[in-house]
Amino acid sequence: xxxxxxxxxxxxxxxxxxGSVTAAAEALRVTPSAISQQLRLLQRSVPVPLTxxxxxxxxxxxAGRALADxxxxxxxxxxxxxxxxxxxxxxxxxxxxxxxxxSAAAAFWPHLVRALSAPGSPRLAFADEDVAxxxxxxxxxxxxxxxxxxxxxxxPWPRTVSVTALLHEPLDVALPAGHPLTAKPRLSPRDVAxxxxxxxxxxxxxxxxxxxxxxxxxxxxxxxxxxxxxxxVAQVVAAGAGIALMxxxxxxxxxxxxxxPLVGVNARRHIDALHRPERAARTAxxxxxxxxxxxxxxxxSQAPGDTEPRS
Amino acid sequence: xxxxxxxxxxxxxxxxxxGSVTAAAEALRVTPSAISQQLRLLQRSVPVPLTxxxxxxxxxxxAGRALADxxxxxxxxxxxxxxxxxxxxxxxxxxxxxxxxxSAAAAFWPHLVRALSAPGSPRLAFADEDVAxxxxxxxxxxxxxxxxxxxxxxxPWPRTVSVTALLHEPLDVALPAGHPLTAKPRLSPRDVAxxxxxxxxxxxxxxxxxxxxxxxxxxxxxxxxxxxxxxxVAQVVAAGAGIALMxxxxxxxxxxxxxxPLVGVNARRHIDALHRPERAARTAxxxxxxxxxxxxxxxxSQAPGDTEPRS
DNA sequence: AGTGAATATGTAGCAGTACTACAATGTCCC
DNA sequence: GGGACATTGTAGTACTGCTACATATTCACT
Lengths: 311, 311
What we know:
2 domains, alpha/beta, two-stranded antiparallel sheet, homodimer, D-Maltodextrin-Binding Protein, domain 2, rod-shaped, DNA-binding, Arc Repressor Mutant, subunit A, nine-stranded mixed beta sheet, 11 strands
């Protein structure tokens, strides 16, 4: 019985529905002999007759009809399997996993939640991932979409991932409220080179800008603290432990911290959505990408005084 | 996509569950190379990657997982199909069609209905078929069980059908109440040869006994009427239109009709259940056959004064 | 850093299977 | 009884899935 296969079941079913070997053969585009042989093969696995002669035609016995009915289920399941990939790709409400580093997560995810809460929208699965720049692309193996950042002049993303540009965000200098430098509307590398710095850990994107400031000022900076998380950085800056680079749009404003634009070095970061090219074959993933772009537009224009043209 | 077959889906599913080509190969008792080739073949039909490398192992992508899930349904349906014949054979409550000629139907079917009314019993499908003797065996093509009758010396049933003997029923002479012959406890062919006869149509089983009476009495009988249905015969006999042969047990008694045993010719008929041998592979069919046998025992002993040994 | 074990993939050849073409057998209908 | 129709059997062919073996890649351990 275990060598009953789909082909034989299909033949049996056609015979049952069409009522003759010849008709089944035409339907399956083979010779009647092929049908006859498949039936003989199938019969070998079953101890009761599945077919019987009726005059010169061949028809199913009740046992044959029982098996032919089961064959319908097999074909249904196979058809469903054959369409399951398209279904998977086409589902509007599929699960979409989105990873992001902290500041992008805080800025983008609330937008996504609001925009995609209606039934029929993609179901979101968030995960925060604060990793060094090189480690963003590999995350696309695990997540459908990865929000990543890199500095203007850093190495571009590898070509194995697709990139959707979201923000080109200025990095400002964060000063404690009341610090003397807050008097200046914009700061040069020389202005800030002697202050104690709070920076990200080595390997993280913003570090390159810190190094650019040191180079432009021709000084060795004093790296007092290494803190990745901007919410913590803001607290420590406000407490007067040093100054820091902070993103203009995606970090939550802090009353004890003033932001001043930096001139003389290119202090900007790209925030991009990375994904493997084939993941965008899914409708749900494309929906989230579209929503991310419109969230980016909202984010970059949310503080009118701070938008790029005027910085 | 249409060349996705069960084998490829099975391979994909094993890969998904076991997590490596080698493990899937062991599970399916083939070499890893075979697995790899089947996966390549499957991938050819699908426009998005189903698998991806993870270190030195191979794992499913989300699309692959979607297809593997569908593969489970396919295997389930196939397993069900492979067991559907046993299920069909083993079901206690399967449908069993029973054909019978009129007097057997009237005598046996009420027993069957009473005995097999509990839930879980075979579901009965009755059909009355009053045919000539030669036409009983072919009815086994259409019905699971056929109640048929034949006379003692008639040709036996062909060996293509299985026979379950039910009754060996005496045929008595039916006389109008008050007819002079009712005075005799038993009748010889000579006693009845000059009466007007009511017989079945030519070709029907009882006809041979009529001819035997004529031969034994060396007379030509007067065949006044040809009526197959015993209920009608009884009415006409009671009305005085003639005498007739009637089965002792399976014809309903009629107040205007007296039955007298016939001696000197072998006047008995066999009532048998005929079926194709393979139909008895079904539990439900065997249940009905058993019930028919016990019904036969009840019928032949229901009128104690008329049982065979005393006739 | 290097080496060996583990894993997957490619290639060639082999074996089993499903098909076609054709012949034979059986059935229906006039 | 003859001709058309239908199924089955037989021999040969094409295809497909497998094994064996070689190769490439990754991992773990020293």
